[in-house]
Amino acid sequence: MNELFNSDLPTNTFAERLKKARAMVGVSQESLAKLSGLSRSTINELEAGYRDNITRETLLKLISVLEKDIICDDYLSYILNQEKNIDLLITTYGIEKLSAILKCHHSSIYRWKVFKYQLPKDKYILIKKLYQD
């Protein structure tokens, strides 16, 4: 019965996917906070949609408890493998061409590659277009 109910929950936003994943596991926000190592207020803010920019660190903590396939959209899945994905792009296009495509300095690309910074969503959209062409 619980599975039937949970299958009807919306999943358009990260907040909705997080609520659904938590409901499917059957844990409270407080329990999820303890199990993931995040604060209850962080869980609450994520589920309320107050936080749009989810860091890889937070995402890794959440998927240590919840179902990755429910929580992650394409962008978040890309972020989980950012180093490998950026390395593949550099190999395919070269750093200079990739810099031009993404409209950024090559040093930013190297920082994304070593995960010094998380790839911004607008740059992910440009990358996604490369695969669609």
From TrEMBL:
InterPro entries per UniProt: Cro/C1-type_HTH, Lambda_DNA-bd_dom_sf
Molecular functions per Gene Ontology: DNA binding
Entry superkingdom: Bacteria
Organism: Clostridium paraputrificum
Protein name (Swiss-Prot/TrEMBL): HTH cro/C1-type domain-containing protein
Gene3D superfamilies: lambda repressor-like DNA-binding domains
Chain coiled-coil ranges: none
Domain HTH cro/C1-type span(s) in chain numbering: 18-76
